[in-house]
Every structure is written in structure tokens, then in C-alpha cells.
Amino acid sequence: MSExxxxxxxxxxxxxxxxxxxxxxxxxxxAALRPVCVVETWPYQVPxxxxxxxxxxxxERARASLARAEEIVRERRPTVEVSTRxxxxxxxxxxxxxxxxxxxxxxxxxxxxxxAGAVLGSVSMNVAGQAPGPVVxxxxxxxxxxxxxxxxxxxxxxxxxxxxxxxxxxxELRGAALxxxxxxxxxFALAPDFSCDIEALRExxxxxxxxxxxxxxxxxxxxxxxxxxxxxxxxxxxxxAGERAALLVVGSHGRTGLEAIxxxxxxRGVLHHAHCTVAVVRAR
Length: 284
Prior knowledge:
Blueprint: E1 4-8, H1 13-29, E2 32-39, H2 51-76, E3 85-88, H3 91-99, E4 104-108, H4 122-127, E5 135-138, E6 149-153, H5 161-174, E7 177-183, H6 198-219, E8 225-230, H7 234-242, E9 247-251, H8 265-273, E10 278-281
Parallel strand pairs: 1-2, 1-4, 2-3, 4-5, 6-7, 6-9, 7-8, 9-10
Antiparallel strand pairs: 5-10
């Protein structure tokens, strides 16, 4: 049985960008593609407005959106097996459930319910870190990104291992180099009189990065790996790496992550500030 890629569709331009990205990735993976549109039931008790009439109208629009999604896939990647699905429920919940049987879930950054000034839609934020597998949040218009690198954030902890696995596979499928970014900020604000050997610290962090990367290099010898160790804030450093990457991969939590928190602060910051497509891979 082939792998499955699930992509959320809501009729928005961002949703159709996600469909195009998902079609390309399904083609690379040899996977089937399932565009999913989720419609909610009428939430109000207003006698003047017929709930059934409203729901029928929404369902008709959803079917049109799915038809357009299927058309995009067939035009872009005609060999990819595609089957659409229309569901009723809460979009974030339904998409998380669909992701349970998928290699990855792909969503746009903002849907039709987004408001001016919002960088990330509520559905995208809710599924990232909660879905069992990788969640790819596609930047608007990013389906045809020409960059030839995949970037991944690492911190030496076991929490970043699933992100590394996904990033190496993506780099291998794309024939791209993999930039492994290890950022370490200095807490000078907490100790202004503290002094240290910056170069010695850098060498120590470089050793941590290489130690984590070496087993993956052995498993994927054809992938060119760049160990990028920098002193700086992780969000800023990762966002900068995303400027030259086709895909930026981060774990849902880092070394300081707490199970009760859906997304770690660095992951949340990257989703808001990176100007590229971001994949969030849940820490096991």
C-alpha cells in the first residue's frame, strides 16, 4: 500500500497553494493524495435563517473547492493518485484525525476565516504539533520555490530526532543539501558581568551538532549536510536559514519543551516569522 499525503482545502488561495505543494511532494514520495474539505454545521439558533439551507450552500461550495483541488493535482502531477473527501465537523479536529493514517498533513498558512494582520490561521496553528505526523504549513505562493536547500533545527536532544528523520528524507527526495541549524543564545541579560570564550563555546556546540548528525549521515550518505552552528536567538537564526531554503523543518518542542504545551516557543516563533514553507514534526 502506498503512502498517503493529506491536504486541507477550504477554497482559499492559500489552500490551493497547499494543494499544489502537496501534489509535488506526493509525486516525489510516490504517495497518494487526499484533499480534504471540512464544513461546520450551522452554529446559531436563529429562526429567520434556515440551518439546512446554509449547510447546503456551504457543502456546495466545499464540493466546488474539492473539484478545483483535484483539477490542480491532475494538471500539475497527472500520475499522482488523488481522491477527495468532504467531512462535517471542526476543521482542526477532522484534519488531525485524517492525519492519523498519513505520511504528512499539508495546510495553507491562512484560510478563508483569516483576518487582516494575522500571519497564521487558527486551523494551521491548531493542527501543527497536535497531529501525529509531520504538518507542513505552506507559505503563500511557495509551491514553485526554487531554493535547493532543506533546513532543519537541531538542539542535540532526542526531541529533534523525528524532525531530522523527516528533513533527511525530504532532502534525499529533492536531491537537495541539508542545512542543520544549531543556534545557541548567550544569556548576558541575566549576568551582565559574565565573560566567556565564545570560540570555545562554539566548538562545544559544534561537537554536539556533529554528534547528533553523524548517525544520520551514515544512513543518508548521498545527502550533503551543512552543520550551521551560530550564536543567536533560535527563532531569528532559523528564520534566516529559511530565506535560502525550500523547506524549513522544526520539532514541535525543543530541549525545554513541556508535554502540556502544544507548541514550543521556538516553533511558534518560526511559524510566525519564517518566510518559507515550514514543516512541524511532533516530538515522540
